Amino acid sequence: MVLIVGEERQEKIAPITYDLIGEGKELAEKIEEGVDCAYIGNRKNAGELLHYGLDRVFLLESDEFIEEEGASSLASLIEKIKPTIVLIGATNRGRSLAPRLAVKLETGLTADCTGLEINEKGEFLQIRPAFGGNVMATIVTKTLPKMATVRYKVMDRAHRTDEKSGSIQDVEPVPYNKKKILNLYPIEERGDITEAEIIISGGKGLGKKDGFKLIEEFANVLGGVVGASRKAVDDGWIDYSHQVGLSGRTVKPKLYIACGISGSVQHLAGMQTSEHIVAINENEAAPIFKVADVGILGDLYEIIPRLIDEVEEYRKKMGS
Amino acid sequence: MRIVVCIKPTPEGSELAISPETGTLEREKGDLIINPFDLYAVEEAIKIKEKQKEVEITGIAMAPPKGDSALREALALGCDRTILLTDREFAGADTLATSRTLAKAIDKLGFDLVICGMKSTDGDTAQVGPGIAEFLDISHVSWVSSILELGEKMVVKQMLEDCYREVEVGLPCLITVTKEINDPRLPSFKNKLKAKKAEIETWGLENLGLNPQECGLKGSPTRVVKTAHPSYRKEVEFVDEKGFIEELEEWRIL
Ligand SMILES: Cc1cc2nc3c(=O)[nH]c(=O)nc-3n(C[C@H](O)[C@H](O)[C@H](O)COP(=O)(O)OP(=O)(O)OC[C@H]3O[C@@H](n4cnc5c(N)ncnc54)[C@H](O)[C@@H]3O)c2cc1C
Ligand SMILES: Cc1cc2nc3c(=O)[nH]c(=O)nc-3n(C[C@H](O)[C@H](O)[C@H](O)COP(=O)(O)OP(=O)(O)OC[C@H]3O[C@@H](n4cnc5c(N)ncnc54)[C@H](O)[C@@H]3O)c2cc1C
Predict the structure, then answer these.
(1) What are phi and psi of B214, to 5 degrees?
(2) How many angstroms separate the CA of residue B1 from the nearest CA in chain A?
(3) Among the atoms of ligand 2, which is closest to the Cα of residue B115?
(4) Closest-CA residue to B14 (of A18, A219, A39, A129)
(5) Residue of B nearest to A104 (CA)
(6) Of the candidates A96, A90, A181, A176, which has an alpha carbon nearest to the alpha carbon of residue B130?
(7) Taking 70 as the threshold, does the pLDDT of residue A124 lie above it?
(8) In chain A, % of residues over pLDDT 70
(9) What residues are paired with A39 via a beta bridge?
């Protein structure tokens, strides 16, 4: 079996869960096995997960995610159901939980994978960026289960169906009393870019903070949100929450437009799986053009206003 | 209070020596410095020492012999003692073997608090901290951006994607710290000179009482079987503004 570990955030199912189910199903098909989900959270959400074509949902009922409790309970579950592969989200919670679990099971754990494959020999290949994104490493694990944490937004999500499948089975909690969550303060997800369908990003090529006004206007016209490269963030032109890339957000929108961004490996690491990529840059040799479907060569301050005009004209013509 | 800080000696600079022919890492080249994220761990330990009585800080690293340069940096910054875990048998460790080896040494030293960086700039897994905690059978809190209280128990602020949590944990425990926690100081010239001459204590397999099967490559369930530069295959099509509109139409964005 493939076991995926679902995640709950403030009583909601974290979207990484659907990425894990989607990827879990793909792998399970190749090794001709099924997919189970272990869910740490509330019963209502576990019930919702029955709509995603899983074989079983194992519920560890908990109000508050505690790494030590999760690791102990999941370790006993895994020893019982003996999955071949265990996938966990490469989120802050997941990356805090998974190493403890791997040590308990004395098995290998591959971090923050962006690709998972089964090769002709049936080996499980785990692909991940390391060295600040300069290297893609392929890792194999010789023990069972083979564990990996998976980066958000790089895998194909599972879709909900109206039918239900499988059933909920309760996991015995192993209470842990050396740790207490005193308070939880939600961070306002103001202008969160990870869920956006259209992202227009600006980089150092804007030349000045004011350049983001143009990017914002462009984003408004297309119904998108504003992203940025790290240089633009480091220069204080825009808030970190907009940063796309290795040390920022990973995004996978329908359309990503990079304006005045050179396309460093670290930036590409955060957006190369976008469905469609457009790059606007004055340098034909900029590496961003290696991942772009469409390029527009020239000064962004001339190009973007023209694009805005064209889109508005198109809309007028189509009567919308 | 006995604080142990885990310091990973890492290659300097973000541009790493990668052989263009084979795509493998040329790890032998260049000096080893303190993993930049571990500077925050060292700084936090020093800040605790400045505020509390009887604090002893031990910096510990598992690395080849030349990793001593990173520990000298740690001494110059204010660690009281440093230990370099080095042995041929430790080479090629994945995070499981690394965590086990470090945990064994930390256990031998005795401790109240272990502080790790949030991740390394090379291996970049963020797995070693929680792994050590599990081997030591103690609590851990990852992604700590602030220590709010420190006494018999500690209260820390843990950063998650959607929220931050105030977590109370009993000592002994382990934390991994983020860049928000402090502004690391620079070592003084005088301390740098002093650290240059200091004797760095080294421990090997025998000092730790570990079995060679549990360390290094032999004790590692994962293997890096291939490293490559990220590759991109697309063929870009250059267009003008009319072409742009046509593409958006085709992609059903307009
Ligand atoms: C560990 C690590 C993590 C990192 N994480 C990230 C990350 O998360 N995100 C990230 O983005 N970077 C990250 N970086 C930084 C990254 O290496 C690059 O420095 C950064 O992405 C460059 O930003 P840029 O493309 O905006 O700037 P530059 O590389 O300076 O590129 C500017 C581009 O604008 C073009 N240009 C200039 N003027 C115009 C104009 N008038 N019209 C059109 N084009 C113009 C230029 O031709 C050039 O291609 C990281 C680096 C490291 C070492
Ligand atoms: C390209 C590549 C990919 C890799 N991928 C994986 C993988 O997916 N899974 C896996 O198990 N191993 C992997 N490894 C091996 C892993 O990098 C090593 O085990 C390494 O010794 C520790 O992991 P890290 O660098 O990721 O440290 P992290 O877990 O990111 O480091 C976190 C903190 O732990 C402490 N710490 C870590 N290492 C040491 C040390 N040697 N001495 C003292 N303190 C330390 C520091 O405080 C550090 O800030 C990979 C190695 C390479 C070269």
Answers:
(1) -95, -5
(2) 19
(3) 47
(4) A129
(5) B134
(6) A96
(7) yes
(8) 99
(9) A6, A59
Angstrom CA distances, B55 to A128, B51, B146, B200, B222, stand at 39, 9, 19, 20, 37
Q: Which atom of ligand 2 is nearest to the CA of A111?
A: 8
Of B139, B163, B229, the CB nearest to A184: B163
Provide the token pair at A175: 């209470």
Q: b or e along A160-171 (b: 16 or more beta carbons within 10 Å of the residue's beta carbon)?
A: eeeeeebeeeeb
- Which of A186, A268, A306 comes nearest B163 by C-beta? A186
Q: Is the pLDDT of residue B22 over 50?
A: no
Going by the DSSP 8-state scheme, the letter that residue A174 receives in this structure is -
Q: Which two tokens stand for residue B186?
A: 């620079």
Contact A139 B234 (CB under 8 A): no
Residues of B in contact with A67 (CB under 8 A): 130, 140, 142
What is the secondary structure of B93-126 as a DSSP string? --HHHHHHHHHHHHHHH--SEEEEES--SSS---
Mean pLDDT of chain A: 95
* Contact with chain B for residue A310, Cβ under 8 A: yes
Q: Is B250 on the interface with A (CB under 8 A)?
A: no
Q: Residues 52-111, chain A: which have Cβ within 8 Å of B?
A: 67-68, 71, 91-93, 95-100, 102-104, 106-111
DSSP E strand boundaries for chain B:
2-6, 9-11, 32-34, 56-62, 81-85, 113-117, 139-150, 153-159, 163-170, 173-177, 201-203, 222-228, 237-238
The reported pLDDT for the residue numbered B12 is 80
pLDDT at B241: 93
Residue A18 tokens, joined: 């659907």
Residue B82 has pLDDT above 80, yes or no: yes
Which of A226, A250, A267, A274 to probe ligand 1 with, by most ligand atoms within 8 A of CB?
A267
Task: Name residue, tokens 């220590």.
Answer: B147
B116 touches chain A (CB under 8 A): no
Query: How many C-beta atoms surround the C-beta of residue A269 within 10 A?
Result: 24
Tell me: pLDDT of B71 over 90.
yes
The per-residue b/e assignment along A293-309, b for 16 or more CB within 10 angstroms, e otherwise, is bbbbbeebeebbeebbe
Is residue B23 pLDDT above 50, yes or no?
Answer: no
Cα separation, A188 vs A104, in Å, equals 35
Q: Pick the atom of ligand 1 nearest to A232's CA.
A: 26
> By mean pLDDT, which of A39-53, A62-76, A258-272, B28-42 is the weakest?
B28-42
Q: Which domains does chain A have, with CATH numbers?
A: 2-170 (3.40.50.620), 198-318 (3.40.50.1220)
Which residue matches tokens 């493998």? B24
B160:A297 CB<8 A: no
A211 within ligand 1 shell (Cβ under 6 A): no
Q: Which pTM was predicted?
A: 0.87
The pLDDT-based confidence of A189 (bands split at 50, 70, 90) is low
